[in-house]
Amino acid sequence: MTPKLRTALALSLSTLCATTASAQAEVTVQFWHSFSKGNEKALEQIITNFEAANPDIKIDADFIGNYNDIVTKLQAAIPANRAPDAVIMEVTRYGLFADRGVLADLTGYLDADPLKEQLFDFARKVGVYNGKNYIIPFNSSTPVLYYNKDILTRAGFTEEPALKTYDDVLKVARQITEKLGSEGISGVAAPGQFARWGLVMDNDSNLIDPDSNEVLLDAPNTIEAYQWMASLVHEHKVASPDGVTEEDNGRDAFWAGKVGIMFNSTGNYTQSRKALGDKLAVRPMPCNKVCSVPIGGAGIGILSSAKQEVKDAAYKFISFAASAESNAIWFAGTGYMPINKGAARQPAAAEALKTQPGIDVAIEQLEFAHGRPRPPVVTWMRSSEYDQWQAMALGQRDVAETLKAFATSTRNESQRLSN
Amino acid sequence: MPRKFTPYLFVLPLIAFIVVFTYIPILTSLNLSVREWDFLSPDKPFVGFENYRLLLDSHEFWNSLRVTAIFAFVSVPIRLVLALLIASFLVRETLSARILRGALFLPFVTSTVSIAVIFSWVFSTDYGMANALLRAIGGEKVPWLQDPAIALWVLILVNTWKQLGYDVIIYIAGLQAISNELYDAAAVDGGGRLHVFRRVTVPLVMPTTYFLLVISVIEAFQIFTIVNVMTHGGPAGATDMLVNMLYRTGFTLFDIGKGSALAVLLFAILITLAWIKARVIGRKVHYEA
User: Which of A100, A245, A383 is opposite residue B41, by nearest beta carbon?
Assistant: First the structure.
């Protein structure tokens, strides 16, 4: 063997050993999330920053689908021992997983973390279930009212119309449909589930009582709210049925300039602005009987099954993701609300507030934003609600009858889950 | 090792595969069907036949069974008749016949999810191509996927379009196995084309028909992807096939016991149907000319 070859071999071996050693020292956190399109870019930025600051931790992030998909896949992955280490969980759906011991109790971590004092109260509360912290907030939102200024102008509105009550919204939606329906433009997008919950709260009711966990699906004001929402589709025909059978269709049609008004999460702000530019206007949700909006979004939880060192690494990441700096990147890149009191002072957030009109509407709504209950039955209720809504919105079943029957089955299911 | 064990060693991998991926899941489903479980709890309490009772008492189950039966008993005959007719025209070994066979087979090898997504767009009420065409010729828009009376027929159409190519190819293979001498003899006897088709082709292609019938009915009862992507079982349960209900019960409503009970019932239904087909049609099938 020549000396050159020996040197090359020795160098290769030492490099290999060094690489192996560093790989062994690295902790990998497998993280499931629900962010795609523009929102995924903001998340990638946060992960890149975290990995640069913590070279011994690798975040293996996977887009799994929407919140429902995550629940479904997580539930199948747990018995197969293929669950991730950390996961994004929607704020009303994690109760079941906390209740069953699937999510680790993060109270100890958060109590020892200065982050606890930096979080807004509303954000800290979304992670609390039965007095313990199971998720740390990441992407908080409220529904807001988006409208397309160009469509309203073409429909004859020279000034911004009132959009405070159900009647106001219906009036505007009707005029849009009458004037521009021949171009395939609808007045309003059929509200998605988060917006439906918001519209019920605007009508001074709820789906489940946040204090007592009592099912309120058959409360008179809930029924009235659903009657109005369903009438947009099958009675007044100002909302396309396409958005009922596939909720994203309504949002996509709004982005394509085919819908005048849309109720949707503030998390859709950036994509809406990208699609409509200066034509986009953002306003608070209507206050039909009261001003009240639900706080939505999700937080990151850690699986109980993760090894301790992985849990520690995962928490480090979660805490970093909720820090003022990361939260400002997230807010500016997506439109989700700031959860960290220091986020607004960060350059990225300050720039967004200055240059992106309407991004602050969700923040303004915080004075009447409320957390939602998350007993185990909520996951079942939300999965089942889609079929009920379809039947009501498409005029196939009477709203009051449907909601009364649905309330009964939700109570039965709640009983089953508590056994 | 004695030589008599050697053949068993050759089939051992296949047997192991079937045991692990077929028999163990079947037994696990049977076990879960008599238990209460939500995938997350460590305990799976035994509840006897409660899950079956709940299912058989529910409107949802009978609706799903009805919808699936309509789907199967409408779509399978349409597919088989169309496939036999098309195969009769494409059985000749000409260039155009080969190109058409390839074109017909293409949807079968295309991803079902892609097909379902594209047809969802085509049949979208306000933004779809089907209604755009209707409006262009002066018609009214049709709520293809929102009207319970229409949605199931749209699924039948899409599924037929996807599966037809497979049925045609199998029929062509069956038709090619029929000896030309029989057709010559029929021609000598003065049989017309329709008469020959009815008296020679149809009886001799019966083994193929029987095979396709068995496969198609099973496939129809197990349809899921098209339903899940295009309608999610809606509107108002109008397309809620058994497997869609099974998925929803087990994986979105957290009731794996009831979902397993439904899987066992579906298994029993398919076994019963196969037995009926064997008794009623199987006896009329002749494997030799």
Answer: A100
Domains of chain B and any CATH numbers: 60-111+145-284 (1.10.3720.10)
Interval A185-204 mean pLDDT: 96
What is the percentage of chain A residues whose pLDDT exceeds 90? 63
Instruction: Give chain B positions within 8 Å (CB) of A397.
Output: 236
Q: Which helix (H) or strand (E) holds B7?
A: helix B6-18
How far apart (Å, rounded) are the C-alpha atoms in residues B49 and B59?
Answer: 18
Residue A33 phi, psi dihedral angles, 5° rounding? -140, 180
Residues A215 and A86 in one domain: no
User: For residue range B172-208, what is the model confidence (pLDDT) as tens digits?
Assistant: 999 998 888 888 888 888 778 888 888 888 888 988 9
Cα-flanking dihedrals φ and ψ of residue A280, to 5°? -80, 135
Quick one: A181 and A269 in the same domain?
Answer: yes
Q: Are B39 and A79 an interchain contact pair (Cβ–Cβ within 8 Å)?
A: yes
Amino acid letter, residue B118: I
Distance (Å, whole) CA A243 – CA A232: 11
Cα first-last separation, chain A: 74
Q: Is the CB of residue B57 less than 8 Å away from at least one CB of chain A?
A: no
* pTM for this model (two decimals): 0.80
Domain boundary residue, one of A370, A388, A405 = A370
Give contacts of A240 with chain B, Cβ < 8 Å.
125-127
Q: Show residues of chain A in contact with B145, CB under 8 Å.
A: 245
The pLDDT value given to residue A361: 87
**Whether residues A151 and A118 fall in one domain:** no
Instruction: Give how many domains chain A has, as a whole number.
Output: 2
Cβ burial of B212 (10 Å; 0-12, 13-18, 19+) is buried
**Chain B nearest-CA residue for A413:** B253
**Does residue A12 fall inside a structural domain?**
no
Q: What is the nearest CA distance from B254 to chain A, expressed in angstroms?
A: 7
Tell me which chain A residue has its CA closest to the CA of residue B238: A391
Sheet holding A57-63, edge to edge: A57-63, A27-33, A86-90, A296-302, A135-141
C-beta atoms of B125 and A386 within 8 A: no
- Beta strand A259-265 with A143-148 is antiparallel
CB-based contact, B63 to chain A, within 8 Å: no
Cβ distance A244 to B146 less than 8 Å, yes or no, reads yes
Residue-averaged pLDDT of chain A: 90
Contacts of A102 in chain B (CB under 8 A): 40
Residue B98's CB is within 10 A of a number of other CB atoms, namely 12
Residues A163 and A277 in one domain: yes
pLDDT at A12 over 80: no
| Domain membership flag for residue A189 | yes
Q: Which of B40, B236, B237 sits opposite A100 (nearest CB)?
A: B40
Say if the Cβ atoms of B127 and A380 lie within 8 Å. Answer: no
Mark which residues 145-164 of B lie under 8 Å from A by CB.
145-148
- Residue A21 is predicted with a pLDDT of 43
A208/A251 same-domain check: yes
Residue to substitute from B41, B44, B126, B247, interface A, most A β-carbons within 10 A: B126
| Domain boundaries, position A209 | 143-294+376-418
Element (DSSP H or E) covering residue A272: helix A269-276
CB atoms within 10 A of CB A134: 24
Does residue A131 share a domain with residue A241? Answer: no
- Examine the domain organization and report whether A100 and A59 are in the same domain: yes
Give me the CATH number covering residue A317. Answer: 3.40.190.10
Map residue A66 onto helix, strand or coil.
coil
Q: What number of CA atoms fall less than 13 Å from residue A197's CA on the CB side?
A: 25
